[in-house]
């Protein structure tokens, strides 16, 4: 497997009337071909902003990408997304990198037919004419599980249910056979039963197309079902990266522990109280001087307040940004 | 064994501080934003002041005629004098005084007109929204009827039938404008009903009266206050229009509309009579529009974007 | 779509009925329509004779029935002053008012919408500030007063434009400008806020994430959605101009329906006044119906009963 995306030291800030919001503070990760990477975190952890920054989709007057590299590797070679011009980025968006967003009703234009909204990516990126685009759109609709695709081509978003709309959005994302799909909370706005169906759809498409997926969510339950690796973010920084099984069995960062502890589980024997993490999310207006999680951490000690913990390798392909060594039960020897 | 990964970022990256200048600039922007609202309020208050204190600040009685001083131009003209700073009309009445007293008519029409319109509108709109069903359909049918008619035309026709009087004008505006208040009120009441807010009050045991007064009314004040400001401005404008056509208050009464009516006759020879009332109306409208815009921004629920 | 149209047409017919009832009773609201229409000095016998002649002594329902049937067959009454069919008089004046209103709304659209668009796409720019300032002025200046001043300046003092009447092509400039000014202001603001709102919508973000070209995003996604409220307001304002031109037509002695109305009121020719009221309402209802249809064409949610 080869690396198709490598992000290094991404910093994104928003210069607002209230001050500077430090949304992304030094994020690095890599994505392998065909792999599904889940990015997990609370609201405000910077997970969405990170991905949006890569493709220039954040509003640039208040927003600014201060630093970083995003090496995207395709058959044509490797390029840094953050150095590309807007025109070049436009070619990649919707073409080699597809998007699925959270709320399907607002994601789709209410006054255009869904067929039109899918076809326009095809005409734009694949150079198809109207007829070809129409044919391919109909087959895509069938592919994502929409019945009567010929008829539904001319339908409008408000005529679909939530789950069906999300299928349409997924059809748009895969239309030009992208290398990566960035899915930002794709199931959060859906009913639980529909969620399962959509996750299954993603799995099937992943198998058929070999596409890599970056799945952004705050829901660790969904992650277990689909991810290969997980990146946990907090306060705009990565705090733990590991393969999914490794993360669930051997979490090393106190925040991850807290997240897992807060998960209700069907298989727990006694009834136990859900453990919530005390405290509140960090104020991103303040400059980052120490571990962002220190306020809420049960294991924080003096060093946590003086430096920002970098990512330490704690096991094979498993990193955690914490000065406290959970296994040892004391500060890490570094 | 743990190894430390080096982050290549300079520490300065993580170190963006807000300078004092930034904070000052932020506050300045805030005040600048509200500046137009404050200006609008001041402009409006000046008119209110003129209306309330008219007897004290007007140099002459508005009805006092002085035929020897008729049609005098304003003070800066060769034939003018500072005694009649803005000139006099065809009957020698001081224009400045009539202008000041005219504010009384305009504000009275605007204020009471809106009071009646808002009162009627709120009642019917709330009933329509809260009760629903046939009552709602009927009320909204009437509302839609009135709102789809050519407003000015009907106001003119009704005014001509009823005759020239202050009460008539107030009643006409009050009743014809009630539908728009009714529609807005109904919309708000429906929104509140759907938000479950009212449902929880009911399930907590609140009676209908209590719900209306403690829960619904306070939420109506915001949008209705904004609407009232704009509608009052409109009424002042229409009073002038009616007056211009000779359908507003009786001719001797100093109103801006009447002044325009008189001014039209003498426009080419002596434009001053027509000039001042128009400026007064423009001033008042401008002030109230600015005020209304500001109110709308401020009272806008956080549903929409923040005021930034 | 047909269902929607039929529904709206049905509504319009009901509204028209309401208008007829309203107008019918308006003239009788003082209790004695004959007194209203006769000069003040008229003797009691003259008034009674008039009452007989006009049939005001008959039961109200009969009078209304007559009136209603009359309207349906094209008889809107007879003008007391001209002693001829009121409808004919109105139709004669109609083209002038249509010309005035059409010119005014065109002016408002051509100046207002582009200013609003620029303002919405470049908020805070110089053009935006100028546009918003002009919009505020346009909506705050009493337009008929401005008309008087402009007439004084351009026609009387400078002689560039005719001061009254409809004799040459230049005659329509001042009245149309002044009539359209408040609507222009309204359109600037409406367009601007619509553009800002649509630009912030999620589906615009989606369009960008698809890598669509800016031109496509603007025309297909943004502008089409902006058009929705615009169409509605423009239609309503056009109807409003048709029905509310009385003051402007009076100022400029423009020979349209508005001027006829003003004259009719002066003559106490209430049959004519009623005819004008009914006809104008009919026209406005028709325009509203057309606007509803246009609205449904642009926004599919409306025609499918959302």
Task: Output mean pLDDT of chain A.
Answer: 88
Strand order of the largest sheet of chain A: 6-7-8-3-9-10-12-11
First and last CA, distance of chain B: 50 Å
Largest interface: B-C, 40 and 46 residues
What count of helical segments of chain A does DSSP give?
12
Structure class of chain A: alpha/beta
Distance between the termini of chain A: 32 Å
| Structural class label of chain B | mainly alpha
Strand content of chain B: under 5%
Gist of the model:
The complex is a heterotrimer of chains A (334), B (308) and C (306). By secondary structure, chain B is mainly alpha-helical.
Structure description:
- The complex is a heterotrimer of chains A (334), B (308) and C (306).
- Helix content of chain A is 32%, strand content 26%.
- Chain A contains twelve helices and 14 strands.
- Chain A has helices at residues 47-54, 86-92, 104-107, 114-125, 130-143, 149-152, 162-174, 192-209, 220-226, 244-249, 254-261, 302-306; strands at 3-16, 19-32, 36-40, 63-74, 77-80, 97-100, 180-184, 212-217, 229-234, 237-243, 312-315, 318-320, 324-325, 330-331.
- In chain A, the strands form three sheets. Chain A has an eight-stranded mixed beta sheet, sandwiched between helices.
- In chain A, helix 4 packs parallel to helix 7 and helix 5 crosses helix 7 (162-174).
- The radius of gyration of chain A is 21 Å and the shape is globular.
- The two termini of chain A are 32 Å apart.
- The mean pLDDT of chain A is 88.
- With 308 residues, chain B is an all-alpha fold.
- Chain B is 69% helix and 1% strand.
- Chain B has ten helices and one strand.
- The radius of gyration of chain B is 27 Å and the shape is globular.
- Residues 1-17 and 302-308 of chain B have low confidence and may be disordered.
- With 306 residues, chain C is an all-alpha fold.
- Chain C has 14 helices and no strands.
- In chain C, 42% of the residues are buried.
- Chains in contact: A-B, A-C, B-C.
- The interface between B and C is large, with 40 and 46 residues.
């Amino acid at each position: 497997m080869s690396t198709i995306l490598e992000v290094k030291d991404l910093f994104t800030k928003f210069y607002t009337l209230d001050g500077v919001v430090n949304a992304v503070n030094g994020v690095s990760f890599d994505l392998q071909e065909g792999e599904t990477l889940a990015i997990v975190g609370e609201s405000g952890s910077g997970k969405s902003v990170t991905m949006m920054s890569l493709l220039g989709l954040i509003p640039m007057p208040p927003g600014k990408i201060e630093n970083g590299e995003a090496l995207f590797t395709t058959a044509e070679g490797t390029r840094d997304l953050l150095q590309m011009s807007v025109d070049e980025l436009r070619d990649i968006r919707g073409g080699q990198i597809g998007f699925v967003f959270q709320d399907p009703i607002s994601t789709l234009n209410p006054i255009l037919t869904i067929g039109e909204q899918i076809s326009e990516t095809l005409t734009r990126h694949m150079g198809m004419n109207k007829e070809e685009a129409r044919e391919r759109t109909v087959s895509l609709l069938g592919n994502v599980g929409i019945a009567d695709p010929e008829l539904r081509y001319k339908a409008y978003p408000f005529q679909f249910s939530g789950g069906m709309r999300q299928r349409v959005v997924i059809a748009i994302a895969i239309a030009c056979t992208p290398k990566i799909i960035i899915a930002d909370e794709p199931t959060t706005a859906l009913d639980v039963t529909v969620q399962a169906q959509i996750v299954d759809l993603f799995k099937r498409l992943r198998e058929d197309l070999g596409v890599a997926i970056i799945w952004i969510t705050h829901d660790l339950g969904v992650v277990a079902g689909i991810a290969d690796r997980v990146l946990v973010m907090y306060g705009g920084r990565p705090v733990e990266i590991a393969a999914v099984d490794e993360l669930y069995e051997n979490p090393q960062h106190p925040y991850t522990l807290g997240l897992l502890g807060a998960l209700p589980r069907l298989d727990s024997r006694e009834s136990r109280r859900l453990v919530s993490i005390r405290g509140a999310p960090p104020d991103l207006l303040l400059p980052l001087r120490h571990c962002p999680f220190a306020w809420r951490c049960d294991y924080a000690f003096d060093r946590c307040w003086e430096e920002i913990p970098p990512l330490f390798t704690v096991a094979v392909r498993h990193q955690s940004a914490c000065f406290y060594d959970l296994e040892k039960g004391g500060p890490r020897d570094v | 064994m743990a190894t430390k990964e080096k982050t290549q970022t300079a520490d300065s990256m993580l170190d963006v501080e807000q300078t004092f200048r930034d904070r000052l600039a932020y506050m300045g922007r805030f005040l600048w934003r509200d500046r137009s609202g404050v200006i609008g309020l001041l402009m409006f208050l000046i008119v209110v002041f003129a209306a309330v204190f008219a007897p004290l600040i007007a140099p002459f009685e508005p009805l006092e005629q002085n035929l020897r001083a008729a049609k005098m131009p304003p003070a800066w003209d060769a034939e003018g004098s500072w005694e009649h700073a803005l000139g006099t009309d065809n009957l020698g009445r001081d224009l400045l005084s009539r202008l000041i007293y005219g504010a009384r008519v305009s504000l009275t029409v605007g204020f009471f007109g809106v009071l009646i319109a808002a009162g009627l509108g709120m009642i019917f709109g709330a009933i329509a929204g809260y009760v629903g069903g046939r009552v709602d359909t009927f009320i909204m049918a009437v509302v839609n009827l009135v709102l789809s008619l050519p407003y000015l035309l009907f106001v003119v026709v009704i005014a001509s039938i009823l005759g020239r009087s202050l009460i008539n004008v107030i009643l006409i505006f009050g009743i014809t404008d009630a539908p728009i208040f009714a529609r807005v009120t109904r919309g708000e009441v429906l929104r509140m009903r759907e938000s479950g807010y009212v449902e929880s009050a009911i399930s907590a045991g609140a009676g209908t009266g209590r719900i209306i007064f403690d829960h619904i009314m306070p939420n109506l004040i915001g949008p209705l206050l904004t609407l009232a400001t704009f509608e009052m401005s409109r009424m002042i404008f229409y009073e002038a229009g009616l007056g211009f056509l000779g359908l507003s208050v009786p001719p001797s009464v100093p109103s801006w509309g009447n002044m325009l009516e008189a001014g039209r006759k003498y426009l080419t020879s002596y434009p001053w009579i027509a000039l001042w009332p128009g400026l007064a109306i423009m001033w008042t409208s401008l002030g109230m529009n600015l005020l209304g815009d500001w109110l709308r921004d401020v009272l806008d629920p956080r549903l929409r974007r923040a005021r930034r | 779509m047909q269902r929607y149209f039929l529904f709206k047409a049905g509504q319009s017919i009901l509204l028209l009925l309401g208008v007829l009832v309203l107008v019918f009773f308006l003239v009788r609201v003082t209790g004695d329509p004959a007194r209203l229409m006769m000069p003040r000095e008229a003797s009691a016998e003259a008034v009674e004779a008039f009452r007989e002649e006009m049939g005001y002594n008959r039961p109200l329902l009969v009078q209304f029935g007559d009136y209603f049937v009359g309207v349906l067959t094209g008889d809107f009454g007879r003008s007391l002053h001209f002693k001829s069919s009121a409808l004919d008089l109105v139709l004669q004046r109609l083209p002038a008012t249509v010309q005035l209103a059409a010119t005014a709304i065109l002016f408002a659209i051509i100046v207002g919408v582009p200013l609003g668009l620029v303002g919405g796409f470049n908020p805070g720019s110089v053009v935006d500030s100028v546009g918003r300032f002009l919009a505020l002025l346009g909506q705050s200046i009493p337009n008929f007063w401005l008309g008087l001043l402009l007439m004084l300046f351009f026609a009387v003092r400078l002689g560039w434009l005719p001061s009254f009447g409809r004799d040459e092509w230049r005659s329509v400039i001042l009245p149309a400008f002044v009539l359209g000014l408040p609507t222009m202001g309204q359109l600037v603001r409406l367009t601007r806020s619509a553009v800002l709102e649509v630009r912030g919508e999620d589906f615009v973000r989606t369009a960008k994430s698809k890598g669509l070209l800016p031109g496509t995003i603007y025309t297909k996604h943004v502008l089409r959605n902006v058009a929705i409220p615009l169409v509605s307001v423009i239609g309503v304002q056009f109807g409003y101009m048709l029905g509310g031109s009385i003051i402007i037509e009076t100022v400029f002695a423009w020979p349209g329906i508005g001027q006829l109305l003003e004259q009719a009121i002066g003559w106490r020719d209430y049959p004519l006044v009623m005819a004008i009221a009914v006809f104008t309402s009919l026209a406005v209802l028709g325009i509203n119906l057309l606007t509803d249809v246009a609205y449904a064409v642009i926004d599919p949610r409306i025609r499918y009963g959302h």
